[in-house]
Write a structure and sequence with these properties.
Largest sheet: 6 strands, mixed
Radius of gyration: 22 Å
Mean pLDDT: 94
Helix content: 25-40%
Structural class: alpha/beta
Low-confidence stretches: none
Strand content: 15-25%
Distance between the termini: 30 Å
Bound molecules: magnesium ion
Number of helices: 15
């Protein structure tokens, strides 16, 4: 197998502009057909990017040649592909999207029949077939057929509406980044009884309104519009609407960790998050007698642990939330609806989030080469153990995460894609936070 990786590590399988070719897509289609033993059905959807129809046809051709039937569902949010794969009893789903990445990017994401993303092991199997060009294909009289399904959109919308109960009249501004949520997200909120104002909700692969990554730097229009229209809530999706982040009624982008803590508390029981999520989640779950389990960064890792632990909910601080009572695919539209339900019944979002404590947090990245990154991480657990004497717990599932006796924590983790080692931490006091940061920084710098 080649060293080159077809799939990325953090949810989206991003391909840069020059790699977005029909040749690649055709071979991915053939590889998936081979992986599925040249039988069964695949659901195929795409977001708003300019290269999507071209890639859709190529993937479709590869699947058909490999003897697999294709159900095309058109331009849809990623969660609808996961949902449709399960609902239509398909054997796999394919979504063509580069999620939150800029316009020239594209990517391919695969889904299991239960609506869950392909795991790293499954992706490795596809890669092996792809690079070995080990494509199996049936005879001319056994090639696949194509069907189109428009109805699944309405089934999905109705199912979402049956899942939430929003008090009527809530004023919501929805910013879809001109991405895949543009058509369905505002429609669902209207049908759910909200008074909806839209921003960037015309599908456009050039993303003319804003960059599809929903972070504070990209959401200034939404923040202003929420205030100027006197809205109760702002909701921003990423390019494929599997994520969302809220803006409160004062126009502030919500703290990711606090938002995750607020929604987790509603579910109670066992909830799953990733090693980079903060302390307020543990504290708020303790209050309701629940527990938090942490796994590797990446929504498929969260999904895997949800199934393993039979958890009620799972989410990453990035705003990628999984609602296993609905589907195993992260769903930014359902996440937004559930936040709207909370705000409509319990009051102002700024006040709901202000109930969670503010602990000083620090994020630092230290530049180091690929080789140095591997070397320093090999010994990180021991180096940290020697440096601190108030360690309560060590988690090495993804980098090294240390919880201290007083509740403070630090995560030292190599970047998956860039030449950095990242330090992420929360201290119970500002002094403690500084002390942890300085200590970790010195350890890394002394050992690269
Ligand atoms: Mg996404």
């Amino acid at each position: 197998m080649s060293e080159k990786k077809l799939f990325g590590t953090s949810g989206i399988r991003g391909l840069i502009e020059s790699e977005v070719t029909t040749d690649l897509a055709l071979k991915v289609g053939k590889s998936l057909a081979t992986y599925l033993n040249n039988t069964g059905t695949v659901v195929l959807g795409y977001d708003t990017r300019t290269t999507n129809k071209m890639l859709e046809q190529a993937i479709c051709a590869g699947l058909l040649e490999g003897g697999v039937d294709v159900i095309k569902i058109g331009m849809v949010p990623t969660p609808l592909v996961g949902y449709a794969t399960e609902k239509l009893n398909a054997d796999a789903g394919v979504m063509i999207t580069a999620s939150h990445n800029p316009s020239p990017y594209n990517g391919i994401k695969l889904w299991n029949k239960n609506g869950m993303a392909y795991t790293a092991e499954q992706e490795a199997s596809i890669e092996e077939i792809y690079y070995a060009k080990d494509f199996k294909k049936p005879q001319w009289d056994e090639i696949g057929s194509v069907n189109h399904n428009e109805d699944i959109k309405n089934i999905y919308i109705n199912d979402l509406l049956n899942t939430v109960d929003i008090k009527p009249g809530l004023k919501v501004v929805i910013d879809c980044a001109c991405g895949a949520g543009s058509e369905i997200s505002p429609l669902v909120f209207r049908k759910a009884g909200c008074d909806v104002i839209t921003l960037n909700s015309q599908a456009d692969g050039f993303f003319p309104g804003r960059n599809p990554e929903p972070n504070e730097a990209n959401l200034s229009s939404l923040m202003k519009t929420v205030v100027s229209t006197g809205a109760d809530l702002g909701i921003a999706h990423d390019g494929d609407a599997d994520r969302m982040i809220t803006v409160d009624e004062k126009g502030n982008v919500s703290d990711f960790d606090k938002l995750l803590a607020l929604i987790s508390k509603k579910f109670g029981g066992t909830v799953i998050t990733t090693v980079d999520a903060g302390l307020c989640m543990d504290e708020s779950m303790e209050e309701v007698g629940g527990k938090v389990l942490r796994t590797k960064v990446g929504d498929v890792n969260v999904a895997e642990l949800i199934l393993e632990e039979d958890a009620n909910f799972g989410g990453e601080p990035s705003g990628t939330w999984l609602h296993p009572d609905f589907c195993m695919c992260p769903d930014g539209i359902l996440s937004g609806l559930r936040m709207a339900e909370i705000v409509s019944k319990e009051g102002k979002l700024s006040e709901l989030l202000a109930k969670f404590p503010n602990y000083p947090n620090i994020r630092e990245k230290i530049v180091c080469s690929k080789e140095a990154k591997i070397k320093v991480m090999e010994n990180m657990e021991n180096l940290l153990k020697d440096a601190f004497d108030d360690i309560k717990e060590i988690n090495t599932i993804d980098g090294v995460r240390i919880s201290f006796e007083d509740g403070s924590w630090v995560l030292v983790r190599p970047s998956g894609t860039e030449d950095y080692v990242r330090i992420t931490l929360e201290g119970k006091t500002a002094e403690k936070a500084e002390y942890i940061k300085d200590t970790c920084k010195k350890i890394i710098e002394d050992n690269i």
